[in-house]
Amino acid sequence: MAFKLPDLPYAYAALEPHVDATTMNIHHTKHHNAYVTNVNAALDKFPELKGLGLVDLNKAVGTAAVPADVATAVRNNGGGHWNHSFFWTVMGAPTDSNGPSGELKAAIEGAFGSLDEMKAKFNAAAAGRFGSGWAWLGVKPDGSLGITSTPNQDNPLMAVADDKMIPVLGLDVWEHAYYLKYQNRRPEYIAAWWNVVNWEAASENFAAAKAGKVFGA
Ligand SMILES: [Fe+2]
């Protein structure tokens, strides 16, 4: 079954003024759409891989389950498809963004000391990622929260990832995610992004991750 571009759960302008509508439109209809098209094209050559869902396909990146012929295409485009599908859902209108609550709030305070300290560590991971990539907050195999970053369209689900975790939040720090509004000012984009974080989605992701379940599985 071919992968499909998901609809955004809000309008392109919903994240204004922090993430502008034009960026969101191009990011979704051009960039994300291209990852979907390209991963489908790669899997056309290996129909046996089509039975894997997107999550299992991502977990298989770096293993013998993905043939060498399409390893790079699956890594970049299967990763890009999962990463962006996840990314859209952890954002929302700034008026709906409050902060972490319940078990996620307690886990953040337990792991990092405070929400501000977690944000500082996440921001450093996002700003320090050289070139294109992502920053992640996620549940590590030992059940605790951690922060990591990945290059290109890699993610912490992949067998190739240095730090394995199930993502709770993810931030796209490719220039295509912010350049129209912020140009080279990546730290300004990262700071503004916290205004559009959907903490309800993050809490759901955290509860699922604690049970070993990945978004989209
Ligand atoms: Fe992106």
Structural account:
- With 217 residues, the chain is mainly alpha-helical.
- It folds into two domains: 21-89, Helix Hairpins (Orthogonal Bundle); 94-210, minor pseudopilin epsh fold, CATH 3.55.40.
- It is 47% helix and 10% strand.
- It has a three-stranded antiparallel β-sheet with strand order 2-1-3, sandwiched between helices.
- A hairpin with a 5-residue loop joins strand 1 (133-139) and strand 2 (145-151).
- The protein starts with 20 loop residues before the first helix and ends in a 7-residue tail after the last helix.
- The protein binds fe (ii) ion.
- Fe (ii) ion (FE2) is lined by residues 27, 31, 84, 172, 174, 176-177.
- One of its GO terms (cellular component) is cytoplasm.
- GO terms for molecular function: metal ion binding; superoxide dismutase activity.
- Keywords: Metal-binding, Oxidoreductase.
- Strand proportion, as a percent range, falls in 5-15%
The CATH H-level homologous superfamily of the largest domain = Iron/manganese superoxide dismutase, C-terminal domain
* Ligands, ions, cofactors: fe (ii) ion
Kindly state the percentage of residues in helix. Answer: 40-55%
Q: Class of the largest domain, according to the CATH hierarchy? A: Alpha Beta
State mean pLDDT (0 to 100 scale): 97
Shape descriptor = globular
Give the structural class. mainly alpha
Number of E-state strands: 3
| Gyration radius from CA atoms, angstroms | 17 Å
For the record, give the distance between the C-alpha atoms at the N and C termini, rounded to a whole number. Answer: 15 Å
Helix count from the secondary structure assignment: 8
Number of domains: 2
CATH A-level architecture of the largest domain: 3-Layer(bab) Sandwich
